[in-house]
Amino acid sequence: MSATTPAVSTTPLTAWWNNMTLSGIYPSISTTSTTPSTASSSWSSHFIFGGNPSTAANTPQSTVPPSALSSGYTEDITVAGSLLKDKITGLMDTLMGRESVHAGCGYGEDGRIAMMVDKVYLVDRLGSHENLVGTVHVTTTHIIFRAENGSKELWLATGLIASVERGTLTAAGCQLVIRCKHFQVITLLISRDKSCQDLYETLQRAAKPVSVNVTELLAFENREPVDDARGWKRLDWPAEMARQGVLASQNPKWTQSGINEGYTICDTYPDKLWFPTAASTSVLLGSCKFRSRGRLPVLTYFHRQTEAALCRCAQPLTGFSARCVEDEKLMELVGKANPNSENLLLVDTRPRVNAMVNKVQGKGFEDERNYSNMRFHFFDIENIHVMRASQARLLDAVTKCRDVAEYWKTLESSGWLKHLRAVVECSLFLAESISRGTSCVVHCSDGWDRTSQVVAMCQLLLDPYYRTIHGFQIVIEKDWLGFGHKFDDRCGHVGVLNDEAGKEISPIFSQWLDCVWQIMQQKPRAFQVGNAFNERYLIEIHEHVYSCQFGTFVGNCDKDRRDLNLSKRTKSLWTFMDARHDDYMNPFYSPTAHVALLDLDTRAARFSVWTGMYNRFDGGLQPRERLEDLTMTAMEHVGVLESHVAQLRTRLAELKSQQQQLSTSATTPTNMIDSGMSSATDELKNLSISHPLDPLLNTSTSSSSTSRLLERATSQESGVMDSSLYYPDEALTRYSLKWQPLRGADRCSNPTCRGEFSSTIERRIHCHLCGMVRNDDSGQISDKMNQKLKKSAENEPILNEAHLQIFCRRCLKSTPDERERVCDKCKSD
């Protein structure tokens, strides 16, 4: 990195910081020494009367001499005065009938608080990158670090903060370690102890706000009009059940029931439920009262080939001797709904010891003697508390261990891979049973944690539809969101007021995504989001589950999301991912290669640590280039070149026809058809050239449309090529035959963006025209640029950052036909 400070450029942070309305208290802590003549306040506050943002920059700041920093007395007076002025401003706004600029946008009642601390070092714990000095900005929604030389800008949503740890004061300063829910670890080094303490307390308030109001999450900060019906209606229950084959006309043994309309009998179930047709309302109500949380057995998946059903529920309230005739009858009807086998397999995912303990609390498990044609099976999947501790030990292994022996010892003690294996084995057992024609009923304690894991995984193994991008979203909507996995409690979306609420946090959904990744390593061609692309897909889902940027995973159940009116107030994650559909495509996907994945290897050696997830931000541990990214880029480049070849051949045919026309004009009447024209047309009609994005969009140009295009181009009425298909010579020479390799592309090439790729998981996209080097107007690299490139050591950053064309998605625009992506410069040219 060059030692000289580059010219100040406009960045997203600069624009945001210069234009945002400052309200409340904005402490600006400076660790630099100042002279009395140019002294700046260690605490500076801006107050805006009437909500006019333009006056913020001109607001006078109080000045404090450096000597006052040690005592802190003047700081306290300044802060007290700022608070008093804030209150007076709010009172004046109320009296004048104006909307307060502090209302509804801060921590509690004190309004929006933003903090700025400069001279902070961002430390790379692995030493793969040099430490950067910069400024930390804290707002109510984000924490931003910006390097002084503009080389790095890091944004972190406050909802992603899991914990903040403060180290001891040393000669170099005091360390702050920010651990995030998506497994990013940010280490800051601050020279002054007081500045470190102030920042530590601010981050603690940001990570664990006093208020537990879910409407204060980032998803509700959206100021744009929400029109996201497509994303919020991703799951259509009747349509999904019809796809499975559960319709009165297809299978009269199962029917939809309106017993839970308005969430009357179970508020953690969806309002549309499917039961055996023979089950009466009294049977359903009786079974509901006998099951924990009212979660009675309901259908979630119907296997069309064997007509076996997969049902889910919660544990029964048996205690030591209780029984329920209605519940026994409902179980019997579930078995009889399968014409191929009346035997029913009931799977309890808990260890037997845990189930026995629950009997003391009046719950427990079913007695096989009371249920006809039923076999019982336990699986040793541990509870949420064990999983929480297990992942904590796993993170210690992947982030703190420095030698191999310590790493393997910590990993073994975590038991994480053992837990993954237990979930996959249970899911495989269910899939094999259903494929043999045996209906299954699954439960754990309350039926929303372990049950969701194994039921959703079982469907992935059985149904290839759920292994597509759209189908994967459907199974999440159905078996996680619809059947009431408590995302708010398990992910800690809101502040934790006591230890009991803290014990509800557990990485159940993260563990399921890890299990999906483990299966993808064995069957990469079976998933449309397979292999490394599955990582990008799964990791983005995982991140936004915790970031709360979208409303999809807000709430503990479907009823909560309807009560919060999320579809009208927030955006859906699925719409966001739909716009990036090709980022998640698997170039090796074969829809017919695997139907049911029943030959999985569940030996312990086949389970490994998902470093793409847990070490995502550790650049030194990630590959510089991924095979799947290289394959997809090569396919895209081939498509672009084929399109270019088609243009060149069209131009060649045009030149041939013009030559033939000139050679025969002296002897042939002008109204005759040029013989060379027909030969050129025949040559073009035999071409079969696809468009550059056809491998991604799964579309191809039809031969009929190509024929019509060429017939129009070689119209007998004109005798010349159609001008609409004329390709100027400069357009035919602007394509780059070489594209920049992905290795070394650390940031977007757009000079107005310069966004950094935080990890190799992020998608890097080529411009279809200037894929490698930006040329000057003559189409050649300028002499001045050649001289610069000769100085490789000094100009390597220039080569990587300014002239090699790798872009982020927001800096590339699609052509009107959506078949090419071009950067702003190529678009303007």
Automatic annotation (TrEMBL):
GO terms for MF: phosphatidylinositol-3,5-bisphosphate phosphatase activity; phosphatidylinositol-3-phosphate phosphatase activity; zinc ion binding
Gene3D superfamilies attached to this UniProt entry: Pleckstrin-homology domain (PH domain)/Phosphotyrosine-binding domain (PTB), Zinc/RING finger domain, C3HC4 (zinc finger)
Keyword Zinc annotated: yes
Domain Myotubularin phosphatase: 231-614
Gene Ontology cellular component annotations, sorted alphabetically: cytoplasm
InterPro entries linked: Myotubularin, Myotubularin-like_Pase_dom, PH-GRAM_MTMR6-9, PH-like_dom_sf, Prot-tyrosine_phosphatase-like, Tyr_Pase_AS, Tyr_Pase_cat, Znf_FYVE
Coiled coil: 638-665
Keywords: Coiled coil, Hydrolase, Lipid metabolism, Metal-binding, Zinc, Zinc-finger
Active site: C444
Swiss-Prot/TrEMBL GO biological process terms: phosphatidylinositol dephosphorylation
Residue positions binding substrate: N383, I384, C444, S445, D446, G447, W448, D449, R450
UniProt region (Disordered), positions on chain: 690-715
Family as reported in the entry's similarity comment: Belongs to the protein-tyrosine phosphatase family. Non-receptor class myotubularin subfamily.
Name of the protein: Protein CBR-MTM-6
Species this chain originates from: Caenorhabditis briggsae
Lineage of the species this protein comes from: Eukaryota, Metazoa, Ecdysozoa, Nematoda, Chromadorea
Annotated gene: mtm-6
